């Protein structure tokens, strides 16, 4: 087989433009997300907005669900009005939302600005993945989407690692302005370099058809129950951008990690180093582990059946949360985060396979499109319950161990639910 039809050289220019767009958009998003929940609750003297944890939880329980929900409609709109036009709208919303989030101070204005940002991100998601689908083929799509997903984590790794610590030392506002600048860069890339994908598109769907499909899926109680059960994992996952960041800021002494990293940096560079672990490095840790180990983990779990693999992944996630409950030691915290990320890498790639097993044969594509509702539910519930639980168990009782064990038990309940669901509903080994 000719490597030029399957390797790196097989991808056209528009593919690499889409990869660059994804890198900048996700880098800006995760750069902001890595500090957002902390910025919302810090006092004005510390450079934050001084909102209550419950108020911040309401924001964190609204923005991600909106971002994950909008692609249902955005894909149809892009097919109707054009990918390039939809990207113009998306990047305009992104730049405006980030910029306004950085200069506003009242709760309502900040909330509204972040909603504008989420609309832009939600419009962007299906267009960029659709572009990748248009410019790849059966021979190179696996590699193409692999690079695409790798670019997501590369952006989530580099922006919080390099840009966020420098910018927030000046002002948290600069982090939002950095993200707004990324939106403007994306707008310019779209104007001067991105080309409307050629070739036949899928049939243009009306919004009425979208709502009909949604009603069809939601009437399938088996699918809904499965989504609800798996959402337990995502309730845990979204704590990594909420309660876990508050915990690092308020409770954790990371001096031992700082000493180890700075010693290594001094040995490598021959110069004194003053690196410090802060809240944004939780995102860096998650993305870094995925970049290093996802290929290995994917190859390892590829040989196993879908359901046992998902259950094992949720088990790793639950174990990661339980490890956080063991001790306030910095290395225990790092270990817990790494184990949790291993769970994410194990469970999520197999989830689509499991959806395919319970979907009607002629509706598999439709069901795959709605499988992300576990993220909508997980981020919504996780955002709204995380803040009051943190207030009660950490701020009032100083018992972080109970908080992490509660979330770990949510994961264990998700595991048990999937086992029962398989035995009583699916009734076959999958």
Question: How would you sum up this structure, described in words?
Answer:
79% of the residues lie in helices and 0% in strands. It has helices spanning 13-41, 53-60, 63-69, 71-81, 83-103, 107-135, 141-170, 172-192, 207-218, 221-237, 243-251, 255-269, 280-301, 306-326, 330-358, 364-370, 373-396, 400-426. With 430 residues, it is an all-alpha fold. The protein has two domains: 11-195, Growth Hormone, Chain: A; 212-430, MFS general substrate transporter like domains (Growth Hormone, Chain: A). It has 18 helices and no strands. The model has no long low-confidence stretch (mean pLDDT 91). The chain is globular and about 55 Å long.
Helix and strand layout, with pairings?
Elements: H1 13-41, H2 53-60, H3 63-69, H4 71-81, H5 83-103, H6 107-135, H7 141-170, H8 172-192, H9 207-218, H10 221-237, H11 243-251, H12 255-269, H13 280-301, H14 306-326, H15 330-358, H16 364-370, H17 373-396, H18 400-426
Percent of residues in beta strands? under 5%
If helices are DSSP runs of H or I spanning 4 or more residues, what is the number of helices?
18
How many β-strands, per DSSP?
0
CATH-scheme architecture of the largest domain: Up-down Bundle
Largest sheet: none
The unreliable regions are none
Write down the CATH class of the largest domain.
Mainly Alpha
Give the class from helix and strand content and strand pairing. Answer: mainly alpha
What Rg, in angstroms, do the CA atoms define?
Answer: 22 Å
What is the CATH topology assignment of the largest domain? Growth Hormone, Chain: A
Distance between the ends: 34 Å
Q: Secondary-structure element order, as H and E? A: HHHHHHHHHHHHHHHHHH
Mean pLDDT: 91
| Global morphology | globular
Helix content: over 70%
* CATH homologous superfamily designation of the largest domain: MFS general substrate transporter like domains
How many domains? The number is 2
